[in-house]
Design brief:
Elements: E1 2-7, H1 11-14, E2 39-44, E3 50-54, H2 67-80, E4 88-90, H3 93-96, E5 110-112, H4 113-123, H5 126-137, H6 140-153, H7 177-188, H8 194-197, E6 201-204, E7 209-212, H9 217-220, E8 224-232, E9 236-245, E10 248-257, H10 260-277, E11 278-282, E12 292-295, E13 301-302, E14 304-306, E15 311-315, E16 321-328, E17 330-332, E18 340-348, E19 351-360, H11 369-380
Parallel strand pairs: 12-17
Antiparallel strand pairs: 1-16, 2-3, 2-10, 4-5, 6-7, 8-9, 9-10, 11-15, 12-13, 14-19, 16-18, 18-19
Helix pairs in contact: 2-7, 4-5, 5-6
């Protein structure tokens, strides 16, 4: 036997959920934007869903967008506790020799990891990227090995690094718009990095050296959270542009653009399209989940829980999501944690947008011989 639980969240409840305010239908349905750059991708952060792609898996020179991976390794080491924002980094002669975008580190100059990250994120400082690579791994070469290892772990099939800066146009140093989006998504999991990628203007060396962001979107695009720009004559203009509104964050990657203006216009068009036309639909509710009876189990009931993704990306329609649940009323022991016991269906405007498994939250072993004998005896005695 089954029992069905129909859960319909009111608008008042929905407004308390992330992204719920964005369910209103757009004033005019969005037309997929025209992107002038030859290679681009648009991804939603929470789900990883791709909303737009144009030569998204084409291998490109990334220029300083390389530093997304450099920053990712730094962020992961900080959160792992092997590196601290307060640690001091000493610039080597090699790090100090790097030109291009830089803060003119002097050999032997000491700077905190905090300021090094700021310089990499805000002005794309090559000298600081190399100094950090050497501080973490002992040499840039060993750090690059870690970059490639992390790329492989993330499943980036069109990425290979030969340096941590992107300064050099090496044909063996490449990535794709899709791979940049994936590594950007991973970097954004480390919320503290936005303390640096959202800086428009700042300074280092006790205010003696000014910093101004290479990412103009930080200044004039509402909700911009970063992330990294890049340019060399061979790579042309590149960007991983990220922005968040109403709890929803998108990643727009543009590569091989002809100018900084066209690069920024393409990124803005993709982000505008995403915010205007899509919203996150929560795949969880605050309603209590039912218990399921367990026949011949050491416990009479087992609690249930929802599993799988917490959000689905949906088109804005003006309709609010509705949640209905179908769950087994009773199951035989043994029950194992994770066993599927039902499903919650999420619908918008009468159309199902997701099915969320309802599973057992704990193990319930089957009664042993003496337990079964006691149960049988109790039933015979009418207990």
């Amino acid at each position: 036997m089954r029992r069905i639980f129909c859960l319909i969240l009111t608008a008042a409840v929905l407004l308390a959920l992330p992204g719920a305010a964005a369910y209103a239908a757009p004033a005019t349905p969005g037309v997929i934007p025209s992107v002038s750059a030859p290679c681009a991708v648009l991804m939603e952060k929470a789900t990883g869903e791709v909303l737009y792609e144009k030569e998204a898996h084409t291998r490109c020179l990334p220029a300083s967008v390389t530093k997304v991976m450099t920053l990712l390794l730094i962020a992961e080491d900080i959160e792992a506790g092997t590196l601290s924002l307060d640690d001091t980094v000493t610039a080597s002669a090699r790090a100090a020799s790097f030109g291009g975008s830089c803060v003119y580190l002097a050999e032997g100059e000491r700077m905190s990891v905090r300021d090094m990250i700021k310089c990499i994120a805000v002005v794309s400082a090559n000298d600081c990227a190399v100094a950090m690579a050497e501080h973490i791994s002992g040499s840039e070469e060993l750090f690059v090995q870690r970059m490639n290892q992390r790329a492989a772990e993330l499943g980036l099939e069109d990425t290979h690094f030969t340096n941590c800066t992107g300064l050099f146009d090496d044909e063996q140093h490449y990535t794709s718009p899709y791979d940049v989006a994936v590594m950007s998504r991973e970097l954004l999991r480390h919320e503290f990095i936005k303390d640096y990628t959202t800086i428009w203007m700042d300074s280092i060396r006790n205010g003696q050296f000014g910093l101004s962001s290479t990412n103009r979107l930080v200044y004039w695009y509402s909700g911009c959270t970063g992330l990294k720009t890049g340019f060399t004559s061979a790579a042309k203009y590149c960007i991983s542009a990220t922005a968040e509104r109403d709890g929803v964050e998108y990643i727009a990657v543009i590569m091989r653009a002809e100018s900084a203006d066209s690069r920024n216009a393409d990124a803005r068009a993709l982000l505008d399209y995403a915010f205007a036309n899509y919203a996150l639909c929560p795949l969880r509710t605050d309603a209590p989940l039912p218990e399921v009876s367990v026949e011949l189990g050491k416990a009479a009931h087992v609690e249930t829980e929802l599993t799988g993704p917490e959000y689905a990306l949906v088109r804005k329609t003006g309709a609010q999501p509705e949640y209905s649940m179908t769950v087994e009323s009773a199951v035989p022991a043994p029950v194992h944690a994770g066993d599927r016991l039902g499903v919650m269906t999420v619908s918008i405007g009468g159309t199902a947008v997701a099915e969320v498994p309802v599973v057992a939250a704990a193990d319930v072993p089957r009664l042993g011989f003496f337990g079964l004998a006691g149960l049988l005896g109790g039933r015979m005695l009418g207990l």
